[in-house]
Specification:
Structural class: alpha+beta
Distance between the termini: 12 Å
Strand content: 5-15%
Shape: globular
Largest sheet: 8 strands, mixed
Oligomer: single chain
CATH architecture of the domain at 3-256 and 402-415: Alpha-Beta Complex
CATH superfamily of the domain at 3-256 and 402-415: Amidase signature (AS) domain
Length: about 500
């Protein structure tokens, strides 16, 4: 098997045992990028020369014990890497260069990682597709007619295509989980605030955004565990405290208590997705897991969904431009009283008074406590990641060509109208695009950790994943569950074009 598809932990072990050199491995990945990334356009900023210099230095280092020693990796474009652009897809920021690297990047480099590039995102990290006027469109390596997801779409595409050894992304509405699902890789959305990420003071928010997190994507669950250990812990500029994250509750399928929530009336989920999760649950039960298909937290899921949507909208509000805010106010004015869509729920949070937000948040925290009670009885909850496998590209408006990573390709894809103007068809029913926030938001809105693991493919050959959620700070339990599912035979598979 090509080492481009090995796990990061295996790559580090190969270097540690001198089976391959740091520079040799880095050059292998760079050669893959130069040969294969053209039609995918996942790695949109390269830093090959500095990475080679670092790899040479590591090759002469006597101590190779660091957990990611010599592992070549890329990071989502929104992470600051000193000397590289951080545009979030905005042309106005194209010439910005970060003065210092994000804390997550510094922690990974301290653990021996060799960062050689950055991967593509949607504008403002606010879509389940990854395209922007700076870098163009990223394509799913399983099928170029489909998106790899967003906003960490370049991250997942690069991993699936064997272009990088490890990745980190961010997530507020599925931005780690959906790309992992769409591309057939592993991803972990940590408990809120577990992994801080302050970077360049000129561009990095000083405060944590509600619901938003950073976390790893990888080709194995073990890699997620290693990366989480490195990323987790208080920001040293803010606190001298340390903490111990709880150990996994279980280490074998025979003692794992699994609740399965594969579908929900009124929340369209593709029948192939539902069937794949139910079939996997049957297999885990055959292998000894304790499985319930009826266990649910004791609240109304629609209420929980709408609480998440309003919390999500208010979390974004600080970074809204005046133009976006004006458009939101107009949508609110145009809403019919019977509109119960996700977009309507978010529009109704426009200009929310602080007192109203406090009341909303109090209700949300009560439901979070109900989640905690649920997870006293069940170790993890298995749900869909989102309602469908990877969507075809859905872009409307002004034309965008592929970006610098496209090796000269001129495949046009076009800038969006807004996500709230789109619709998707699931099981023959046409629904608003943002109604698909149900599965990503059901747990994220309450700050729960969630791990995504690949579990198979659709009849059309697109990857399918499962979302594994757990209690607050139960991150090691959800990752362990993903590892047990992986050991049960549900593993990463490389796309044929790679």
């Amino acid at each position: 098997m090509d080492p481009g598809f090995f796990s990061a932990t295996r790559l580090a072990a190969m270097i540690r045992h001198r089976e391959i050199g740091c520079l040799e491995l880095l050059d292998h990945y760079i050669a893959r990028v130069e040969r294969l990334d053209g039609p995918i356009n996942a790695i949109v900023v390269n830093d090959f020369d500095r990475a080679r210099d670092r790899a040479r230095r590591l090759d002469s280092a006597p101590d190779r014990s660091a957990p990611l020693f010599g592992v070549p990796m890329t990071v989502k474009e929104s992470f600051d890497v000193a000397g590289l652009p951080s545009t979030r897809g905005h042309l106005a920021a194209k010439n910005h260069r970060a003065a210092i690297s994000s804390l997550a990047v510094r922690r990974l480099e301290a653990a021996g990682a060799v960062i050689f590039g950055k991967t593509n995102v949607p504008v403002d990290l606010a879509d389940w597709q990854s395209y922007n006027p700076v870098y163009g469109t990223t394509f799913n390596p399983w099928n170029l007619d489909h998106t790899p997801g967003g906003s960490s779409g370049g991250s997942a595409a690069a991993l699936a295509a064997g272009l990088t050894g490890l990745e980190i992304g961010s997530d507020i509405g599925g931005s780690i989980r959906v790309p992992a699902h769409y591309c057939g890789v592993f991803g972990h959305k940590p408990t809120w605030t577990l992994c801080p990420n302050h970077g360049d003071p000129a561009t990095s928010p000083a405060q944590a955004t509600d619901i938003a997190v950073i976390g790893p994507l990888a080709r194995s669950a073990d890699d997620l565990a290693v990366a989480l250990n490195l990323l987790a812990g208080p920001d040293p500029d803010e606190s001298g405290l340390t903490f111990v994250l709880p150990r996994p509750r279980v280490t074998s399928l025979k003692s794992l208590r699994i609740a399965v929530w594969a579908s929900e009336p009124g929340q369209e989920t593709d029948t192939e997705t539902v069937a794949a999760i139910e079939a996997m649950a049957d297999e885990l039960e055959r292998q000894g897991a304790i499985v319930s298909r009826a266990a649910r937290p004791a609240f109304d899921p629609v209420e929980a969904f709408h609480l998440y949507l309003q919390a999500l909208d208010t979390a974004w509000s600080a970074r809204m431009t005046d133009a976006i805010l004006a458009a939101k106010r107009q949508r609110l004015a145009d809403l019919g009283p019977g509109d119960t869509s996700a977009d309507a729920a978010m529009a109704r949070a426009t200009d929310m008074a602080h007192r109203d937000w406090l009341m909303l948040n109090e209700r949300r925290m009560k439901l979070r406590r109900i989640w905690s009670m649920f997870f006293r009885e069940w170790d993890v909850l298995l749900t869909p990641v989102i309602g469908t496998a990877a969507l075809p590209h859905m872009q409307e408006g002004a034309s965008i060509m592929n970006g610098p990573g496209s090796a000269g390709l001129a495949r046009p894809h076009v800038q969006t109208g807004q996500p709230w103007e789109r619709h998707v068809t699931i099981n023959g029913r046409r629904i608003p695009y943002n109604d698909m926030l149900f599965w990503p938001g059901l747990t994220a809105g309450f700050h729960l950790p969630a791990t995504v693991a690949p579990i198979g493919f659709t009849k059309a050959g697109l990857p399918l994943g499962v979302q594994i959620s757990g209690p607050i700070y139960g991150d090691r339990t959800t990752i362990m569950a993903a590892s047990l599912i992986e050991q049960a035979g549900y593993t990463f598979k490389a796309p044929p074009l790679a």
